[in-house]
Fold:
Amino acid sequence: DFNDPNNIIIYPEIVADNPCGVKNVVRYLLYHVSPERYSKEDMLVAYTENFKRGMPDDTHVMTIVEPKVDFFYDQGHEKKGDCYIEKKNSGAGHIHSSAAYRLSGQETDDELLRIFNQYKRFYSYDNETYLNTIAALCGCESVIVPGPDKRREDIIDKQPVLKYGVAFGIEDLEWANSTRDKVREGLAEFGQVSKQQFLDFIEITKEKFIKGIT
Structure:
């Protein structure tokens, strides 16, 4: 019942209006937008601190990622060749081999586990996909091919899970490989932060829209 005054609806940032007509609206900002797109009564929640910039001071942050650390692991197979993805092309030139296997971005988890345990190196022309971290979890060399003017600091600011085990350009590969053993630790730490942000989000939302409900 969209007319229930206690209902709360969450829209992604691409929805500027309120098509469902629900009274209490949360905007989950997964990209940079202008706050002028939305009603002043809406609650704004940014995916990362990066997307909070330029938004009102009361904009909250909630970074939700399913780490899947219990599923993806290095099976110890000998890895050969390379693979790549261009889901969101960064604008960088290709550096993978002509024989590289191309991922579609529609693979199942089982398929990803097999692929990243088969290939030695993964080239990603997408700065933001979680596949960059999944490859590292599987012991595959993970290389983001950053687009022009893209800095490591800016990419990590948008995707904190890329802190360890992922190279930003082929020249960064030695560092990425040397920190690959910290990927799981970093994801566990990130998971705790993410969980607390989610719990805070629930409380803040109740306080804003449904005061008095426990």
User: Anything to note?
Assistant: The mean pLDDT is 88. The radius of gyration is 20 Å.
